Backbone:
C-alpha cells in the first residue's frame, strides 16, 4: 500500500486521473435519473437481439448491473462510471504504443480532464460501451498489424463486432482499417492477408443479432437511422447555426484548448496530404485513419445538417493520442485549470440546481412526477398513464412506477422502441387514462387550455386537470400538464 501511495505521489498524471475519477464517483449519488438512463434501462428489462433506435449493448450492461446490485439510479450511474473507467484504462494501454512516457502522461490527463468523459460517466448512452469496444478494437488491430500477432485479428474482429452492437457508428472502424491499409505503403500487404478478411468476417458474425433483428422487423432500425438523415443532407440547406452550434458543442466536450489542438493538427495533416501529397506513414497514419473519417467526416456535414454532439466521440480516442504529441506543459496546465472550473460548476449545478434547465433532458423532477402521478391514479382509479414526447416522460415514469406507462403509440404516433415491446393496445379498450404532457419552457402555472388534436380520436372525452408543479429546493422548477381521458379505443 505504501508503494502504491508513493507511486501516486511521484506521478502527477496518476494523481490527476484519480482526482478527476474520484470527483465523478463522489458526485454519482447526487445525480438524478436522466431520460436516457430510463430509456436504456427499459431496453435491459425487455431483452431483445437489438432495438429500434440503437443496438442493445448499453441495455444489456444496465441489466447486468441492476440484476447484481438492484434497481436504483445510483446503480445505473455506477455502471456508466465503471465502463468509462475501463475505457480510460484501455486508452492508457493504447496510447502507450504511440507515445513516450512524458507524452503518455499528458495524453491521459487530457482525456480525463474532458467534459465528455464526465458525460459518459454520468449518463447512459450507447456511446458508453461504444468507446470501450472502439478502444479495445484499436489495441487488437495495433497488435495484429504492427506486431504481426495473428490471433489479434480474431480478437479485433470480436471487438469491432461488439462496438457495432453498441452503436452503428462503429462501422467506421472497418472503414478506418481499410483506409489505413490502402494508404500505407508498408502495411498494404495485409489487404491480401486472409487474417484481415477473417477479422472482418468475424466482426460481421458478432454483429449478427443486430442484422437478424432488423431482418425480422423490416430493417426498421437501419431505416430510422439512415433515411431521414439522408433526406435532410440531400436537401443541402446551408445553416450557419448548425455549423457554429457544432463548434460550440465540441469546445464544450473537449474544452477549447484540446479542441483547437484537434483543429491545428487536422489542418496540418490535411494540408500536407492535399497540397504536397505527403501522407504520414506507420503509426501516425494509423491514428489518423481512425480520427479523420469520424471527426472530419461528421464536421463536414455541420453546415448542412445538425450533427449531434456525441457523434464525433469515437474520434477522440486517437485524436487525444495525436494531441499528446503536440501539447506542451503550459497548454496542458491551462486545460486542467479550465477543466477544474467547468467541473466545479457542474458539481454546484448537480448539488444545488442553480440554473433552471428549460428542457426534458434533465436529471431533476422525474421521481417527484412519478409520486404525483401515483396520487392521480388513486384519485382516478383503474386508469393507465401515457405521455407524448418520444420516450422521455414515459421511460422515466416506467422506471419509478409499478404499473406500465405507455408512450405516444397510444394515440397512433411512432414511439421508437415502445412500438416493439409487444404491447397489445386493444386490451386497453374502454379504459380511462391519464395523459401527461411536459411544459418544457414553464413560464406560468396556468393550464394548457387546448388539447392534443389526436386525443379526441382515441377517447370519448378529455378533461384538463390542474398541472403538476415540481418544486426543487423550494423553487417551482418543472411543470406537467395533465389530462383525464375516458373510454380509450385503439385503432389497431
Residues:
Amino acid at each position: 500500500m505504501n508503494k502504491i501511495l508513493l507511486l501516486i505521489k511521484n506521478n502527477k498524471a496518476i494523481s490527476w486521473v484519480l482526482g478527476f475519477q474520484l470527483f465523478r464517483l463522489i458526485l454519482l449519488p447526487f445525480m438524478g435519473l436522466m431520460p436516457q438512463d430510463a430509456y436504456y434501462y427499459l431496453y435491459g428489462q425487455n431483452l431483445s437481439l437489438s432495438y429500434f433506435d440503437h443496438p442493445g449493448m448499453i441495455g444489456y450492461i444496465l441489466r447486468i448491473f441492476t440484476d447484481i446490485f438492484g434497481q436504483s439510479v445510483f446503480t445505473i450511474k455506477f455502471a456508466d462510471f465503471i465502463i468509462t473507467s475501463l475505457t480510460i484504462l484501455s486508452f492508457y494501454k493504447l496510447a502507450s504504443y504511440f507515445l513516450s512516457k512524458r507524452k503518455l502522461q499528458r495524453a491521459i490527463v487530457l482525456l480525463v480532464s474532458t467534459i465528455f468523459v464526465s458525460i459518459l460517466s454520468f449518463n447512459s448512452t450507447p456511446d458508453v460501451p461504444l468507446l470501450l469496444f472502439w478502444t479495445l478494437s484499436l489495441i487488437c488491430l495495433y497488435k495484429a498489424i504492427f506486431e504481426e500477432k495473428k490471433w489479434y485479428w480474431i480478437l479485433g474482429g470480436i471487438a469491432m463486432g461488439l462496438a457495432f452492437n453498441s452503436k452503428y457508428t462503429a462501422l467506421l472502424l472497418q472503414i478506418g482499417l481499410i483506409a489505413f491499409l490502402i494508404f500505407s505503403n508498408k502495411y498494404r500487404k495485409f489487404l491480401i492477408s486472409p487474417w484481415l478478411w477473417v477479422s472482418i468476417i468475424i466482426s460481421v458474425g458478432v454483429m449478427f443479432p443486430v442484422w437478424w433483428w432488423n431482418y425480422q422487423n423490416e430493417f426498421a432500425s437501419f431505416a430510422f437511422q439512415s433515411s431521414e438523415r439522408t433526406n435532410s443532407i440531400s436537401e443541402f440547406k446551408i445553416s450557419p447555426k448548425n455549423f457554429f452550434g457544432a463548434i460550440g458543442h465540441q469546445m464544450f466536450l473537449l474544452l477549447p484548448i484540446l479542441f483547437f489542438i484537434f483543429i491545428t493538427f487536422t489542418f496540418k495533416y490535411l494540408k500536407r496530404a492535399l497540397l504536397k501529397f505527403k501522407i504520414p506513414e506507420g503509426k501516425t497514419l494509423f491514428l489518423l485513419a481512425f480520427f479523420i473519417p469520424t471527426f472530419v467526416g461528421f464536421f463536414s456535414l455541420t453546415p448542412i445538417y445538425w450533427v449531434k454532439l456525441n457523434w464525433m466521440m469515437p474520434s477522440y480516442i486517437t485524436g487525444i493520442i495525436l494531441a499528446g504529441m503536440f501539447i506542451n506543459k503550459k497548454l496542458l496546465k491551462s486545460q486542467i485549470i479550465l477543466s477544474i472550473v467547468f467541473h466545479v460548476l457542474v458539481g454546484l449545478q448537480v448539488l444545488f440546481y442553480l440554473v433552471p434547465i428549460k428542457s426534458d433532458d434533465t436529471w431533476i423532477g422525474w421521481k417527484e412526477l412519478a409520486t404525483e402521478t401515483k396520487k392521480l391514479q388513486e384519485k382516478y382509479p383503474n386508469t393507465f398513464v401515457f405521455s407524448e414526447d418520444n420516450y422521455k416522460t414515459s421511460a422515466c415514469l416506467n422506471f419509478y412506477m409499478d404499473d406500465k406507462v405507455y408512450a405516444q403509440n397510444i394515440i397512433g404516433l411512432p414511439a421508437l422502441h415502445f412500438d416493439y415491446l409487444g404491447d397489445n393496445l386493444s386490451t386497453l379498450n374502454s379504459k380511462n387514462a391519464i395523459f401527461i404532457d411536459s411544459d418544457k419552457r414553464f413560464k406560468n402555472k396556468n393550464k394548457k387550455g387546448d388539447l392534443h388534436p389526436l386525443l379526441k380520436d382515441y377517447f370519448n372525452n378529455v378533461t384538463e386537470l390542474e398541472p403538476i408543479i415540481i418544486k426543487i429546493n423550494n423553487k417551482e422548477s418543472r411543470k406537467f400538464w395533465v389530462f383525464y381521458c375516458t373510454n380509450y379505443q385503439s385503432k389497431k
